[in-house]
Design a protein that fits this description.
The chain is mainly beta and 171 residues long. The chain has one domain: Cathepsin B, Chain A, CATH 3.90.70. It is 12% helix and 33% strand. Strands 1, 2, 3, 4, 5, 6, 7 and 8 form an eight-stranded mixed β-sheet that branches. A hairpin with a 2-residue loop joins strand 5 and strand 6. The longest helix is centred in the middle third of the chain and has 11 residues. The chain is globular and about 60 Å long. The model has no long low-confidence stretch (mean pLDDT 78).
Length: 171
């Protein structure tokens, strides 16, 4: 449990599911343990959960249910199609359906290897009021100590960098 803006929250992660986009239907998922086609993994991870983390390559993003709506939050520089975007904006996108989330995942890995694996992890979030906390909950010790002041120091204006030979040729 942790506190954000005066609200106590508890986040639980479910078991991760290995998933892949299997257009041909040729993959025998029973050989890989807890694995499914990506569309089924997304559906399972969001069933009875509030959200799911989706990881591919070195990127993680979040699909979040809010009432009847489904949102995607991607903190990486992407556009609404899931493609890299040069100006570095994160993305919060209201999705029209679970299929829209699946299509986002597909476009995100466009041009990668044929069987790019994903890791999909369901997330459950609970919020508590102060009077709803379990008996076993112990508050963190807090302190009124102030952090030391950060002092400005003289910065070195020039750097002693090694000289690189400027007449190099590439062969």
């Amino acid at each position: 449990m942790f506190e954000i803006s005066g609200k106590i929250m508890q986040i639980s992660l479910k078991d991760s599911i290995s998933a892949v986009i299997d257009i041909s239907g040729a993959i025998d998922f029973s050989e890989f343990g807890n694995s499914l086609p990506l569309d089924q993994a997304l559906q399972e991870a969001l069933f009875d959960n509030d959200a799911c983390f989706i990881c591919a390559y070195d990127t993680t993003f979040l699909a979040l249910k809010h009432g009847q709506d489904l949102f995607l939050f991607d903190s990486h520089a992407r556009n609404e199609l899931g493609l890299k975007h040069s100006d570095g904006k994160s993305l919060l996108l209201k999705l029209s359906s679970l299929n829209h989330l699946y299509q986002y995942c597909c476009s995100m890995i466009a041009g990668s290897s044929e069987h790019q694996w994903f890791e999909v992890t369901g997330v459950t979030m609970l919020m508590f009021r102060e009077d709803e906390l379990p008996e076993s909950h112990e508050r963190m010790n807090t302190s009124d100590h102030k952090l030391p002041e950060i002092r400005k120091t003289e910065s070195k204006k020039t750097w002693d960098l090694p000289i690189i030979q400027d007449d190099l040729t590439l062969s």
